[in-house]
Here is the input.
Amino acid sequence: MPSQDILINWAPQETRVAIVENGAVQELHVERTLERGQVGNVYLGRVARVLPGMQSAFVDIGLERAAFLHVADLVGHGHGVGRTEAPLPPIERQVFEGQTLTVQVVKDAIGTKGARLSTQVSIAGRMLVFLPHDKHIGISQKIGSPELRESLRARMQALVGDEGGGFILRTNAEEASDAELADDIAYLRKTWARIRERSHSQGPGTLLHEDLSLAERVLRDLTTEATQTLKIDSKLQFDTLSAFGEIYMPGAVGKLEWYRGERPIFDLFGIEEEIARALARRVDLKSGGYLIIDQTEALTTIDVNTGGFVGARNFEDTIFKTNLEAAGAMARQLRLRNLGGIIIADFIDMAREDHQQSVLAELRKQLARDRTRTTVSGFTQLGLVEMTRKRTRESLAHMLCEPCPTCEGRGQVKTARSVCYDILREILREARQFNPKEFRVVASATVVEMLLDEESVHLAGLSEFIGKPISLSAEPTMNPEQYDIVLM
Here is the structure.
């Protein structure tokens, strides 16, 4: 496992985290105070509407949009041993409008979709996940040894006793002592008791339990044996993290460092440039090839091009080596940009089957490092590779950017000549309805210049045809497609 460093840039309005492996940024995480995600938060909600046709309900939890609750996410029917194999009772027989429910956000609101909820609350600790409504002991799939799994399950059953509730052992519980597990059990049960107490004393729409901050989650979830240092540039947050770590992550506290340098921590390690590159459409490869990444509402496409790479002895080897490098870069970009949903990769066409399989193997190998679940299909008949990556939060581009106000997200604008012809047609249309003394065209400087120069003959011809003078006025604040025709 490659060694990694974690850099945290903290400000009152925003926390940014970069995970760096061997000098290359592998992951970026951003959390803004005003836009903090709700995944993991527990709310007291009120059922606003039940939709039998969709077997779901909309629940008001005090957010801008009502959240979504599906029948499969009700207690007894969600993930875990608590669910039954019998057909699910219809949602209209389980919840009703106006009912109050304790719910947890399992998926943030994305785009126009509201947050997704579950009544099967789970509370994450350092080594355990507590399931108050469940009864079983689960083990992380990453703990592969059958003997170790049985040993951990037996130890947990002894520690849990008859107090109820289920637990899932996380990967870092593999070598935990009974005392550490008992401490985590006690903390999680106290947290649940506080949630229940608040649910009985507060009204609907109340936040009962908030998930940890990004910096605390990084310390708890992303700090591993491969982590060499965890540098943070805020003394206040360093002290907060140290106190949090002493309680929940004593083994990681020694890796915490307060960065005191004069240069901003992200500038010093080149993270700002990496963020800029992660927002670009084109990603250059070391060989001279490049990727083109286009993100749409339905899916993300990644196109591989050889560019200026001519290093191999023949064209077939050039294509193969470019595709191999692209597979590694592609996996990194998915993590860096947090791209989710359907992903279509268009590698350069390869004639040899063994080359295709080698590229697929390299892609799967690089994706295996991803913390987010990803599935990869083989090459289709059209030579495309289809992938899916679980959507957990907004992508980096959606978080940091918005559609261009000039092109409205199209990525292109009309040429000046096209706008000139739109103006000439509009003047003719107006002249047939109105009888002003003069038409005045207000447009961008580029359009006005073209009307005065290359299109002056057509402008003069139109003026003569309608029998009215046409004057021009350049407006610096107008974008290339904007114009206005004033009747004088």
About this structure: Residues 178-201 form the longest helix (24 residues). The CA atoms of residues 137 and 167 lie 5 Å apart.
